[in-house]
Amino acid sequence: MSKVRTRFAPSPTGFLHVGGIRTALFAYLIAKQTDGDFVLRLEDTDKSREVAGSREHLIASLKALHLDYDEGPDKEGDYGPYVQSERLDIYKTYAHKLIEKGLAYADPYTSEEIQAYRDAATASKRAYRYRDNRPENPPVWDGTKPLRFKSSPKSYTYTDEVMGEITTSPEVIDDIILIKSDGYPTYNFAHIVDDAEMKITHVIRGQEFISSMPNFLALYEALEIDRPVFAHLPHIMNEQGNKKLGKRDGAKDVLDYIRDGYLPETLDSFIATLGWNDGTEQEVFTMDELIEKFSLSRVQRSGARFDEKRLLWMNGHFIRELPVDELYKRVEFFWPESAKKQPEAYKMQVLSLAQDRLKTLKDLPALTSYFFEEPRIDISLIDENKQLKKLSDEQRADLLSSAKSKLSLLNGWSADAIQKALNELLEETGEKPGTLFSLIRIATTWAKFSPQLNDTLELIGKERTLARIDAAATAESSR
Ligand code: GLU
Question: Whose C-alpha lies nearest to ligand 1, atom 4?
Fold first, then answer.
């Protein structure tokens, strides 16, 4: 068998969302599992839809998710250029092949004439088809008119790696436009030419292209091009599974997820498992595992549900899996302002404490700022705490004073020594850990969440711990 070559062929019409990345990822995996090539091709033949900056954005998104392509607009290969607008001569050559075979012709109609044919079809309750009004003696194609395919209605059968065997109806075959009057090819024509020229073996894309397959198959036949393997991927649905994922349900730019503190590992694993599993209970996969285990035949045919909570859970998992020095590199831009000038060793200690509780890298300031700056007293944290709100202000002030005295007597300020003192304090006060430790935790961090208390206090340091407990006791007694 020839070398596997897959491609991702986005149009530069905006950002790359989860669905686009899934297509790219699956194509990447199929190529990499047999040491094949993954190609990036920009399909920019619809100039009216082009959005400035999207080429750079698409490339940055693929790179951010480690979907490194072997050939592409900025990566030379044997089959370039990899931008369709730079390949117009190639499409013309193929167009002339069809003209010579009597399988393509210039479209002489004005848009008003076409509209009249359309209206007539609607009036007689027929589906509109261009070929029903095909001109008998079309003019010679000089590039100023659209070039159309001269189709023959026929049924085709093909095997889709995901959807199974599909037989198409002759009804839908039509004289589709190959080259527009602006000189650019249509997607319908260009992608077939390019896939053949670039020796693409597998076409992997969204299911919205299934309806065009009859016309594509007719073109493969007319051009005498061998069909590649096809795989059409089901839509990604919202969390409820009742409609296609829209912007509101999280169909956002994948780079936004990176900016929000999601790891590329998480996104790759999460997106791969949108509609695919390896047949076991395994839920989380590294890129190496995906390359080893992925198969198109295990992609579900029905829409995959996008569950943001699962994404968050998975991100926490991948964060915990990272060695702390690697995590340290990843959080570079997420530290609170007050941490910036702190020594690396101290930040590393803080990070190893916070690591278990981080769900996204963006949580870092909320989880760690009290290690670097004095927290603002927020009494609502006490008032909203189930155990603490049962106590009076005075009781809480007393408990805090006892904690302060107990901890101030400590000679060594280690996590173990602190824990021992805290345990003694539990016995002396007769309080439950849930009450006493929550109170001290809040009084020293004023944060919703924090790592284990003794570790936290050790890192905050004795002096700051005692000063904070003191300030909290004063705040309680002056309520
Ligand atoms: N340019 C098409 C798109 O952006 C690519 C479809 C395909 O992969 O063939 O949807």
Answer: 10
Mean pLDDT for 13-22 is: 91
Q: Say how many Å lie between the CA of residue 313 and the centre of ligand 1.
A: 31
- Cα–ligand 1 centroid distance for 31 (angstroms): 18
The separation between CA 370 and the C-alpha centre of its own chain, rounded to angstroms, equals 32
Provide the CATH topology of domain 87-233: Rossmann fold (3.40.50)
- Is residue 11 within 6 Å of ligand 1 at its C-beta? yes
Query: What number of other Cβ atoms are within 10 A of residue 230's Cβ?
Result: 22
Residue 243 is a catalytic residue: no
Say whether pTM exceeds 0.70.
yes
Whole-number pLDDT of residue 157: 98
- Give me the residue spans of the domains in the chain: 87-233, 324-373, 375-477
Long-range own/partner contacts, residues 98-102 (CB < 8 A, 24 or more apart) = 98/149, 98/150, 98/178, 98/222, 98/223, 99/141, 99/147, 101/222, 102/150
Binding site membership of 17 for ligand 1 (Cβ less than 6 Å): no
Closest CA to 209 of 232, 235, 191: 232
Q: What CATH number was assigned to the domain covering residues 375-477?
A: 1.10.10.350
Structure tokens at 239: 């969390």
Q: Tell how far the Cα of 135 is from the centroid of ligand 1, in angstroms.
A: 31
What does the pLDDT look like over 288-320, one tens digit per residue? 999 999 999 999 999 989 999 999 999 999 999
Per DSSP, the three-state class of 298 is helix
